Amino acid sequence: MAFENIDSYINIPTNDSNIYKDECAFSMAAPDDESGVYICLKIFIAVSPSLAKTYSNVSGNKIFLHYKILKVLKPKDTDVVETAAHPTKLAIGVPGGFELPHDRYTVEEHWSLVRLPEGDKLEVPCPSLDSGTPSLSHLKDLALSDKVKSCISKVQCTESAIMVSERAGAAAAWESENPCPISKYAEDLLQLDNGVKIPPKGHKCAKCDLTTNLWLNLSDGHIACGRRFWDGTGGNNHAIDHYNETKYPLAVKLGTITAKTAEVYSYAEDEMVTDPYLAQHLAHFGISIRLMEKTDKTMTELEIAANERLGEWLTLQESDKTLQPLCGPGLTGIVNLGNTCYINSVIQVLFAIPQFRWCYANAWQKITEEAMQNAGQLPVDNFSLQFAKLGNALCSGAYSWPPPPPTPSNESEPKLVPKNPGIRPRLFKHFLGKNNAEFASKRQQDVQEFLSFLFTMIESDATNRHSANFALDSHAPKRTASTPLEALRFVIEDRLQCGTTGKVRYTERQEYLLSLAIPLSAATNVAEVEAFEKRQKAAKKANLPFKETPVYLKISFDDCLNNWASTETISGFKSPATEPPFQETVAYRSSRLVNFPDFLCVQMLKFSVDANWMPCKLNVAIQLDSGSKHQGSEENADDNFRPSDNWLLDLSALKARGGLQPGEETMPDASQDTAAPAKVSADEAIVSQLMEMGFSRNACVRACMVTANAGVEAAMDWVMEHMDDPDFNDSPPTYMESSHSVSGATVTADLSAVATLMEMGLSQQQATRALIYCDNDLSRAVNLAFSEPHKWDIPSPNAEENFATNVPQVNASASTVPTSASSSANLSNGDCRYELIGMISHMGNSTSSGHYVCHIKRSALSKGVPGIAAACEPSPSEGPNEWVIFNDEKVARSECPPFQHAYLYLFRRVDAPRE
């Protein structure tokens, strides 16, 4: 018998075992592929049939479960008239939400036991769906040992590790109507005895004429309109203005009050809340909750309505146009796994860079061989492998083919669901989530934050693999570096000049991302925007529909570059060059580029804070080619922002001087004249109390240093919030200080200001470091923290020197990834001119919500991977200036790329490698 004496080749999964059966560990093969996957019964990973024999020979693992899924369309009920239900909530797969595909089909599982390399196979019955727990009853007729039967049953019935992980992260997925927390202000809410009684109807904002989106303050009965939405609709912010004046915390939205529900917002807690005493609080103003009826939209309904209006959502997704789908190498979509459009967009853009293809996509086979031979690491935990297989699937075209035709609406017979093109990188996301809790969740994330995190992972991966003969594509140029990040790395030269003595200091910092602030004062169409806003307000006042296309402040890209390169005057500078040292004067700072990298990634800092210090998005349109004479039609005004076909970005004016110039004198180093900044040591009493609770000393010391020894409670709060961080138990880095000295005086973060910044969404570390940096100037800290939030997460190499001079010389942004060598020897350099090849755009009012898409110039995309066959012939190209839109799994020819709305731009130097 082929399956006798096989017990030694298998293991029985325990309750702690992770079973990876949803996706091949070495490729993007999945159980619903035509050939299914083989699950190794030794280490419980799935393997593609095309790789199974090689894996078996290398690993010595011989026994597998072949797992195949068939999806069968449910027959239509001809007696039921189907209507297109309009979604009523921002959720997927719940009543009132967006329909999930599996609501339309059933899943059939097929199992068989396989022995390799012989290929012997034994059909295995499916377990009973009603059992709920692993059972051997369905295997009783098989001539197998109890150990083998137990192993098979547990693999069949145990939920996959990916599903377990996704379920854990699904708490914040899409559904925005989670139960709201009970407000801490509800029980003892102050209600003024001011005689105010609220009539059942005829409500109007006390400060304007709005009659919808009204909020009743539960302390004084004041009625005011809500906040303005990102698209200009909503209210005029009068309700929050009233809170800022009175500090009365709770308000209920009129028109949403019924006997069962109502929307209550806590301004003090900055979130939707539950008020258990709402009926009592409303009765104070003469409102009977039992008699109230819903007459206004909830916040979720308003958000959905806003997202459906004309505006950047329509523009960025080109959803008002019929786009032609594209397929072939480099034209593979990525399925959205639940708010993962930020991952999808970044990955697509990165693999438009040849160095990423050489180091990962094209080297996939070699990396796979190395991973199979590495018995000490599970392939699902191998970053090189997971990133390479993802890049290979994107670039090869093996998972790209024309989308199947839609199923006829009158289909009444069962029919197999056709396999859709695109990939589902579930193991890659699972790997990311194990290294960062935020990316494990299904919450929307900031593309820039994810990009910086990914750069750190790639840098670490390159370091780990450098001593193990870094796998490179054999077709790559010999000059290729061991990390693709070398193609993006550039050095900024900062020049600081003392205003009294004229002495200068030059410092250098390495970056992978150029962040540009947007100078609103440079807008060229202020009058046009003001006129648009005036018409919009008039329509609202008259309760008339307003369907004009939004008008944005138009600002040229050149103005953004000039703003970055301009000389900044810094007041209050304590100069080490004066006699005596550290007299207060002014300083002048400017920055230039030491090299012009092969590829330049530029972030437009579109997110700021409004007058109420609330995070907001700048409604701007960036004019890339300010000299373009191209004019769009009235029907397609977005074409006005299309750069001319031969437009190039010229950065020659940003070339660095190259250090000290003739006639310049060097400014003394502040660290030579002053004592090192005072460092805060962890309070041992607090450390001891925390350690008694079972936490490591390193974690307890971190907690004390970050919270400035504020007490056990504050430290414990930090511990509970960060205990899942990968570096939680690592030794505290030297930059984790809660104070610094300026000319001998110690500055400590104001804890109340820290709390204020944390309420606005910053982490405790970000808030503390930003306040220290700004000498507790809350306004400055807010502006700096929200313009570059991760500047305060990663230490500057010269942090002590920066603090000592009170000048932010080193931009320690998240794009600054520590490198093993600070020399400029490996910097890519060349011509100062660049062409635009890619961009990532964001739609929505916050990086924590909305949607991302990317557009890439087709000429920059992969033309295929050597040795890997594409699934189909590539779609014909329309020429060198053709652009492609990647909207998750949808890939199509772009008719009108939204050049003006990009959040990240990717430029290629004109003489950089192309393939």
UniProtKB/TrEMBL annotation:
Domain UBP-type: 181-289
GO biological process, one term: protein deubiquitination
InterPro entries: Papain-like_cys_pep_sf (IPR038765), Peptidase_C19_UCH (IPR001394), Ub_carboxyl-term_hydrolase (IPR050185), UBA (IPR015940), UBA-like_sf (IPR009060), Ubiquitinyl_hydrolase (IPR016652), UBP13_Znf-UBP_var (IPR041432), USP (IPR028889)
SMART domains: UBA (SM00165), ZnF_UBP (SM00290)
Database matches in SUPFAM superfamilies: Cysteine proteinases (SSF54001), RING/U-box (SSF57850), UBA-like (SSF46934)
Enzyme class: hydrolase
Active-site residue list: 341, 851
Pfam family, one: zf-UBP
Reactions mediated catalytically: Thiol-dependent hydrolysis of ester, thioester, amide, peptide and isopeptide bonds formed by the C-terminal Gly of ubiquitin (a 76-residue protein attached to proteins as an intracellular targeting signal)
Binding residues for Zn(2+): 205, 208, 225, 238
Chain ranges of the USP domain: 332-910
Keyword set, alphabetical order: Hydrolase, Metal-binding, Protease, Repeat, Thiol protease, Ubl conjugation pathway, Zinc, Zinc-finger
Enzyme Commission no: 3.4.19.12
GO molecular function terms noted in the UniProt entry: cysteine-type deubiquitinase activity; zinc ion binding
Family classification: Belongs to the peptidase C19 family.
Name by which UniProt lists this protein: Ubiquitin carboxyl-terminal hydrolase
Record organism: Schistocephalus solidus (Tapeworm)
Gene label: UBP5
